Amino acid sequence: MNPKDYKYTKDHEWLCPEPDNKAKMGLANYAQSQLGDIVFLDLPQPGAQVEQFKKLGEVESVKAVSDIFSPVSGKVLEINQAAIDEPKLVNEDPYGAGWLVRLELSNAAELDALMDIDAYDKYEAEALAEGAD
Amino acid sequence: MMNALKKTPLNKVHRDLKARLIDFAGWELPIWYTSVLEEHRAVRSGVGVFDVSDMGRVWVTGKNAGRFLDRILTRPVQKLETGSSMLNMMCLEDGGIMDDLWLFRVEADRYLIVWNAANIREKHDWLSRWSGSDPDIAIEDVSADTAMVAIQGPGSRHMKCLSGLADLPRFGYTETEIAGLKAFAARTGYTGEDGFEIITGAVQALPLWESLVEEGAKPCGLAARDSLRLEAGMLLCGQDMDSSTNPFEVGLGWLVDFDRGDFVGREALLDIKQRGVARKLIGFQVDGREIARPGYPIVKSGREVGKVTSGGYAPTLDVNIGLGFVPVELSAVGTAFDIMIRNRPVPARVVSKRFYRRGV
Hints:
The structure holds two protein chains of two kinds. Chain A is of the alpha+beta class. In chain A, 25% of the residues lie in helices and 33% in strands. In chain A, the strands form two sheets. A six-stranded antiparallel β-sheet of chain A has the order 1-2-3-9-8-5. A three-stranded antiparallel β-sheet of chain A has the order 4-6-7. In chain A, a hairpin with a 3-residue loop joins strand 6 and strand 7. The longest helix of chain A has 16 residues, at 117-132. Helices cover 18% and strands 35% of the residues of chain B. Chain B is built from seven helices and 20 strands. Chain B has helices at residues 11-16, 36-45, 65-72, 120-131, 205-214, 222-231, 266-275; strands spanning 6-7, 20-24, 27-32, 48-51, 56-61, 85-91, 97-107, 110-115, 138-141, 146-152, 173-178, 181-186, 195-201, 218-220, 279-286, 297-300, 303-314, 319-327, 336-341, 344-351. Chain B has a six-stranded mixed β-sheet. In chain B, a hairpin with a 5-residue loop joins strand 6 and strand 7. In chain B, helix 2 crosses helix 6 (222-231). The A-B interface holds A 34, 36-37, 39-40, 42, 58, 60, 62-63, 65, 91 and B 20, 31-32, 35-37, 223, 227, 289-291, 293, 312-313, 342.
């Protein structure tokens, strides 16, 4: 189940808004299930600036490597060292212990460009149906 | 429009298990069922079962079958006793590798070839070309009427439904009954573990699969097939070797036997052997957590010297490993070089291709 208070991107990242213009981001369940067992995460250092929908890092699974895109612009406050040390956390708990980066948003208006739970559930269902053919 | 993918007799099983399906050499096959790491580990410590029906299965029979195979294969079939099997290879006239294959001698004039799914049409054309119109050679592809299942792992020989196979020697085979179903079973595999490969009729594939799974064999997909074979240092034709590579540079020169009459590729292969090779396929270990994937450049002193052909995470060893071509002078175990992983040099070094070796 995708959490209902989160926002989502078309590339299947999630953003969980926190007070004071801060937010956590990670990979949606669909993304981790498509990638399969994740073995490596390449994330930016705290202090780095990221831009909305631009590359933030890389995720490597046994079968493929993919770019991770930032749901919003801002500054990296913190990265999840536990997930870097044990990338399977992203497979096991993509919305909780498997979070990737905590950000400080530079433009809260960018949230409007993200999908809410209803839009994303529909988007994910379409992606799944396409993959099943 | 994509061509419709071929489906194996076990396709419904894969769909029912909600496996992730992909196109593999024109076949719709599972890349994994739940987790490639779990599937990999099941084969190293227990039993895994794979649908390998994509492999081609071709009977070559008749009075001149042996002579014909001797002509097109690099190892002489005279050395193969009835009731046994051998790894063999088919090369082009210039010595390039067409495929590696398993050859079973079932009767004096009756052979079974089991080979890779890739380039199947090309290989059949090659058989037709060299057999000509000889009425004493019959070639029959039975791939569509049969299924093939691999049961791999240290627990394979303890499975009740396979108890009739426990005494089979390595590379030996038998025509037998398994779970009441007629089957051709060989003690072969592509994982570096003990195990069996079983060919059975297409309609019998499902009950065979079900009895294996009921006894605890874990369904395993293509990704585990790949990571297991890579750990065991086995090459994948079409990836680590193809018509642009020769047996000597990939370390399979032992499959070429010159101590006999003419065979396709003999002259070129002898020349290659006498001149020596300029490059070699080596095993490497990456000193980093990134995976070196096929096609990534191998770099020494800032210059590209070769390319990765296979690479991946080795779950049993918990390191990243791979295979790739380097110049002979950089092929000694311990030689250090970099692999360019998405434009970043990552240190790696040459190690034995037998990354993983099973215990006794």
